[in-house]
Queue: 3 jobs
Job 1
Amino acid sequence: MNKHAHGMTLIEVMFALSILSIVMAVLFTFSMSFGDTAQLQHAKALGNDETRRALQALVPDLHQGVRSSINWGQLPGEMLSYSVPEDLDGNGTPVDAGRRLETSLPRIVTRDLDDINGDGLRETQLIAVNGRSVHVLANNLSPESEQPDENGVFGPAQDTNGNGEIDRGVWFESWGRGVRITIQTQGTTRKGHVIRTTLQEVVFPRN
């Protein structure tokens, strides 16, 4: 046996373990970074899906709406009410024998503050109520409803979340002869970062 053969010294073992610990720490940091990035992208994608889903359901229906039935006097605000042409007398057209336009019951689009559908979600859910029928248009609405003061100033006192922007989960306002719809959703990453997605569209009722 070679008398010069020997194992690793304690110092060499400690040095090797130190290098291994550094490598593992770097790999862990990278994995956490990739995980946070994936979660951020997931939050953004989920927000985009919710806002687009709401607009895809609401915009075509409001486009069929009767302009005179819209609650113009309550706009801007978080609630939109309108009616669409509907064949009420069964004659095949939404016009009665006196050539008057027949319209549906008011369709109300608002936050589900009273939990009408009983699913436990309230200010973060956007619903459309049509008579006894309730449809969920979007979830994960931003709970904020920030407004400028009576002078139109948006300052620190009105900026409840301190991000320097007016945040509203849902907002309807007159826009010429149409209605501008703003829908904002939000998600939270593992580190507590809030990701907001806002989409707007102007709809001109054709009736």
Job 2
Amino acid sequence: MTSLSIPSSISRVEVYLFRAPLDVPFRTSFAVMFSRAVVLLRLEDADGCYGWGETWSTFPPCGPEHRYNLLETIIAPLLLGQSFGSPKQGYDMLTQRTQVIRLQADEPGPLDQTISCADIALWDLAARRAGVPLRSILGSAGNATVKTYASGVNHPGIAETFAR
């Protein structure tokens, strides 16, 4: 059995926000989007191992900045200096330690999204520390393919976009 622990404490937490303007805005079920954004989290432990996570932040248009700020001001300080026996312990700690904020702010969705981002990064970090592909830990060791899902692809000219 591969060890999934993160015995070395988290020594660095970096949050990134990238936004790319779209040449052709597109309509989703929520709004017209003028750019695509991604919010990434990079965790590094004291041994120099690292893991990456990503959070959903498409809507509202200020969502990426909001998720970035939640990661920077709430999630990052909770992770710094912590060691975990498993990624699940990190997830459980973050969920428990944000309960009051969740109630006070009445924002369970954005908080859950940022906790999920950290959870992904912890799993990635644990897999890298163990020297195994993340997919093998998550139960698809024999399958080299990963099913994908794309949303927000219902704008006019979608067939031409994918044909490029």
Job 3
Amino acid sequence: MPNTQIPRHIVVMLAVLALSTGGCASDTSPSPSSSPTEPAAEPAPVVTEQGGTYWGVYLAVGEESDLEDAIQYLTDERDLEAGVEFSIGDISCDEGAAEALGAAGTQRVAVYFISSDDAAIWAATLLAEPVGVVEVQTFCLD
């Protein structure tokens, strides 16, 4: 019977080859074009204009004292600037908001977006669920 023992240097080379290819004979590493993509950037709030139609994410609705936590959250945690990316004021300035939200107050804190998708994506990043996400027409801006 012939000797069928594989020489030690061949065994070592096969082991190194198996480790370097992850035990597979074919290359399974992703090509540069199939590399994982970066997560999409969070949608940016918009600055509203008189008579514009937007999707508002309402963080608080009520009286002035009911708005303090939402304002604190937006300025400290979300680092948004007052008067630019979020709005504080009378809910009647957002036509359709009071009815859609069943508002039990006259004041609101809202952040506005161009699309319902952007508003929903941004609302999903909040620590607490918003009062609602509503399409409105903005007034009281002049």
